[in-house]
Write a structure and sequence with these properties.
By secondary structure, the protein is an all-alpha fold. It has 4 helices and no strands. Helix 1 runs antiparallel to helix 4. The protein is rod-shaped and about 90 Å long. It starts with 9 loop residues before the first helix and ends with a helix.
């Protein structure tokens, strides 16, 4: 496995960026934007095809938003685990230093 270097705040910035992208995508509603089409194409068979495509796109976007929110949650869990590991390591090293008489 390759070495991973994590600078202070990297994971928090990652989570924040993923949240920002998810929030932005959640606002995308192709069907809402194309909602004017039925009034402009009265009686056209194309309307149902276009609106069906819009609904499909909206569903796919919702899936991406959900996946990004899940990913952000996992990054949050990683942050918590990383902090817990750092705390445990600090305590271990302090105990080793104390037992060796190094303060």
């Amino acid at each position: 496995m390759a070495d991973i270097y994590v600078e202070a705040g990297d994971l928090e910035r990652l989570r924040s960026g993923v949240d920002a992208v998810a929030d932005g995508l959640a606002q995308v509603r192709v069907g809402d934007t194309a909602g004017y089409l039925p009034a402009g194409m009265v009686g056209s068979d194309s309307v149902s095809v276009v609106m069906g495509a819009c609904n499909t796109i909206d569903g796919l976007v919702e899936g991406v938003v959900e996946a990004l929110r899940d990913y952000s949650s996992h990054v949050g869990e990683t942050i918590a685990q990383f902090a817990a590991t750092e705390d445990a390591n600090a305590l271990t090293f302090q105990n080793v230093a104390n037992s060796a008489g190094v303060n």
